[in-house]
Amino acid sequence: MTDTVRIFDTTLRDGEQSPGIALGEEDKLAIAHQLADLGVDVIEAGFPAASEGDFAAVKRIAREVRGPVIAALARPIPGDIDRAWDAIREAGRPRLHLFLATSDLHMEHKLRMSRDEVKEAARIGVERARGYCADIEFSPEDATRSEPAFMIEVCNVAVEAGATTINIPDTVGYATPADYSALIARVVAEVKGDRDDIYISTHCHDDLGLAVANSLAAVEAGARQVEGAINGIGERAGNTALEEVIMALRTREDHYGVAVGADTRYLFTTSRLVSRLTKYPVQYNKAVVGRNAFAHESGIHQHGVLNERTTYEIMDPMAVGQGESKIVLGKHSGRAAFGDALNTLGIVLEDEDFERAFERFKSVADRKGEVTADGLATIVTDEGALDEVVRLVSMDLTGGDSTTPLATVKVESRGLTLEFAAEGDGMVDAAFVALTQAFGVDATLVDYRVSPVTMGADAMAAVDVIVRMRGRTFTGRGVSTDVVQGSARAFVAALNKAAHKALSDAVGEPT
Ligand code: KIV
Ligand code: ZN
Fold it and tell me: What CA–CA distance (Å, rounded) separates 386 from 413?
C-alpha cells in the first residue's frame, strides 16, 4: 500500500515569526479555515505561551476549525505546556508540540544546560504533555548541527516518554539534501525502527534556498510528515514552501511513491489569502503559485502551449487553482498570438478594428514589456467596435500648479482635422471640456473612476466615466499608463456613444 505523507502547516506559527508579520485573531482564523479547506493534516496554530494574542487565536482555532489536527508549540516547561494545552483542549484532534535544542551551540549559549539536563527536561516535558493528550510531537531544535548520536538519544527519550512524532528541524537552514537525507535515514532506523505508530518529520529553513529540496530528500529517506508554510514564509529566509512540496510529491508520484491528502485546487487561493493578510507579496516567478508559474511569453512557447498545453507545462494550472494557462503578450508577439489571445477572451475584432487594437497593444507592450490577458481585454475594449464620430488624434496639455491647465485636442471627424482648446479646473477637466467642444455636444460628467489594471511604477490605469446628455447616460472606458490620456480615451468612448445617439435622434432611427 502507498504510504501517505502528512502535511503539517506552520504558517500561523513559524510563518508568523517572519519579520514584520503580525496577524490578528480574525486573520489567523480565516487562514486556518482555508488550510482546512486545503486539507492539510496538521495546523500548527501558534505558540500560546508567547503572547495573550497567540493564546486567544489558538484557542479560537481549536474551538472552531475542524478536520486537521490542531497543534500548539511549547517549550518543555510546565508553564508553556499547561498554557498550550489550555489553548487546544477544545480541538477535535489536539496535538502538543514540544521543542528543545540539542546542538552544543544552543545548549551552551542559549539554554545553558548540560546534555543530561536536556535529556531529563525532554523526558519530563513529554511526560507532562502526555498527561494531557495522546498526540505529542517532539523536535530537537537545531538537529542538523547537533551531534547525531546525542540528538537521536534525546529523540528516543522523547519516544519512551510518549512522543509519537519526531520532527528533525534544520533550524538554521544549514543542511544539504545529501546530509539531511542521511540524517533522516538514521533517525528512521534508530528512532522509528519497525514501529508503525512513530512518524519521522521534516522541518527545514531556507537560508541556503534548500528547504524544499531537503524536505523532499527527507521523504525519500523515510520521513512521513513534512512541515512548512504557505508561500514559504517563516523565520529569516523562510520555511519549506508547502505548495511546492505538495505539487512535487503529486506531480512526481512516480518518483517519490507516496501520496498526499491535500486538495491542490485550493493552493492558489490559500497562497493569495496568506499573501494578502501577511502583506508579503508572492514573487512573480514563484513555483506553483506565482502569477507567472503558468504564463508563457515567448512566441515559440506560446505556439506550443496553444497547440498542446503539456509541451511547456508539467502541471495543470487548474489543478492548483490558477485557472487557465496564461498567454502573456509582449512586444515580440505577432498578430497571430494577439488574435489567439483575443479569441480566448471571446473578443472578435476584424479588419481596421483589429489593426487599430493591434497597434495600440504594440505601443503599450513597447512601453511595458508585457501585456497580460486582463490588460489586453481592457486595451481592446476601449477601441470598441463602434464607428467613431470623432477620433482623437492627439492631445497637448499645458499649465499646472501655477497657471490654469489648458488642453488642446486634435480630432478627426468626417475627413476633417480640427483643433479645440479649453481651460479647466485640472488637466482632466480641461481635456473633458475640450472634447465636448470637439464633439459639439452638451454633455456633463457624472461619474469618474480610476482603477489599476497592472501594478508597478509604470502601471496602466483604467478610467471609467459616465457622461449625461439630454437626460441619458453613456459610459466610456480608457486605459493608459497616463491617467489624463486614459481619461481622454474614456471621454472619447462615452462621447462617441452620445454622438451616435444624437445622430440617430436627428435622423429618427429607432433607439
Ligand atoms: O526551526 C525550528 O527549529 C523550529 C522548531 C520550533 C520546530 O521552528
Ligand atoms: Zn522553524
Answer: 14
Number of Cβ within a 10 Å radius of residue 243: 32
All domains of the chain, ordered by start, with CATH?
A: 3-278 (3.20.20.70), 295-381 (no CATH), 391-507 (3.30.160.270)
Q: Which of 318, 329, 325 is nearest to 372 (CA)?
A: 329
Indicate whether this model's pTM tops 0.85: no
Among protein residues, the one whose CA lies closest to atom 1 of ligand 1: 171
Reported for 54-58, long-range contacts at CB under 8 A and 24+ positions apart, including other chains, are: 55/83, 55/86, 55/87, 56/25, 57/12, 57/23, 57/25, 57/28, 57/29, 58/84, 58/87, 58/88
Q: What ligand 1 atom has the least distance to the C-alpha of 17?
A: 8
How many A from CA of 174 to the centre of ligand 1?
13
Contact 53, 46 (CB under 8 A): no
Determine the Cα angle at 79 with ends 78 and 82, to 5°. 80
- C-alpha dist (Å) from residue 419 to 391, 393, 396, 416, 430: 12, 10, 11, 10, 14
Question: How far is the centre of ligand 1, averaged over its atoms, from the C-alpha of 171 (Å)?
Answer: 6
Judged by average pLDDT, the poorest of 50-64, 211-225, 493-507 is 493-507
Predicted local distance difference test score (pLDDT) of residue 506:
65
